[in-house]
Amino acid sequence: MEKVEKNKEIHTASLSETLQSFEKSLGFKNKIKWNNVIIIVLYHVIGIYWSYKYAFPAKWQTLVFALAMFVFNGVGIGAGVHRLWTHRAFKVNLPFHLILLAAYASAGQNSIYEWVLDHRVHHKYSDTDGDPHNANRGLFFSHIGWLMSKKNEHVLSGGKQIDMSDITDDPLLRFYNKYFAYMKLIFCYILPFYINVYLLGETWQCTIAWQWFIRFLCAFHGELTVNSLAHTFGSRPYNKEIVPTQNKFVSLVTLGEGTHNFHHAFPYDYRSGEQFDYFNFNTFLIDMFSKIGWAYDLRAATPAMIDSVSQRLGDGTRINRSRMTHAETEKE
Questions:
Q1: Phi, psi at residue 217, to the nearest 5°?
Q2: φ and ψ at 114, to 5 degrees?
Q3: Domain residue spans of the chain
Q4: pLDDT tens for the chain, residues 1 to 332
Q5: Long-range contacts of 224-228, Cβ-Cβ distance < 8 Å, separation of 24 or more
């Protein structure tokens, strides 16, 4: 018996050493979370196969519902966990709060606590070794590789210095985080499946293709483009000395989170960017709810402040809209 146990220990140690050697040969700075790698890869492989086999033919109602769920996911991430809970850029009443909680659960992300902590650390140590998805480590790492890796000591120590009391002291968020696994299961998988099959009359195979794979993965990768594409491609009209950029594609797939150079220059601004030429549905939604009193105390950088910062630090690509408007007014 002892011999069997000893052989198991030797085998486990040998496997661990092999994996560590493999990680080093690939140039990884962080230890790989192999369970995450397997889950993420399998989910994509099964999703591609299942969608290829069952996504079509699909009812038009199924396609519209998938798009609606994609938008609902984007609102939960962009307006909810990002602008409201991470940056406290505005306040909401209870009904709107519950809508955003449901929307966030439907996206199938990590708990609010984990998401907020990672994003606050990201802002404090942006694109350094203390950033959970440091863009200087490459496009793959900043997009999805960081989810396959264990956090390094810089990220872990940085996280310990982040004040999370607004999340932990909130009774509603505490309850939500405690039962988040069930919330995610219900709103991301069970409820969409039930609606699509029993109310819209779609086949269960087609429903799984569109809701569990296509819609979920589009929302998942859409959100991740903020960490990768919006830290790699685009202009820096507000601060050319930082890595985040303005990226129209990212704005489109995230409902308005692609004006990332602006966001890092003014992280407290509820708009997360100036409107102008960028799609920003989340700002439109917050503005709409503010008109009926469901969103209030909206924080925003003043036009003068934005002009000042962009003139001092920007790359020169921003049009000074306030001055242009003033000039046009004088001309009239």
A1: -70, -35
A2: -65, -45
A3: 33-302
A4: 555 455 545 554 555 565 555 444 444 567 999 999 999 999 999 999 999 999 999 999 999 999 999 999 999 999 999 999 999 999 999 999 999 999 999 999 999 999 999 999 999 999 999 999 999 999 999 999 999 999 999 999 999 999 999 999 999 999 999 999 999 999 999 999 999 999 999 999 999 999 999 999 999 999 999 999 999 999 999 999 999 999 999 999 999 999 999 999 999 999 999 977 899 999 999 999 999 999 999 999 999 999 999 999 999 999 765 544 433 333 33
A5: 224/143, 224/144, 225/143, 225/249, 225/250, 225/253, 225/254, 225/258, 226/250, 226/254, 226/257, 226/258, 226/260, 227/122, 227/133, 227/135, 227/142, 227/143, 227/146, 228/133, 228/135, 228/139, 228/142, 228/143
What's the predicted TM-score (pTM) here? 0.88
Give the phi and the psi of residue 91 in degrees, each rounded to 5.
Answer: -120, 160
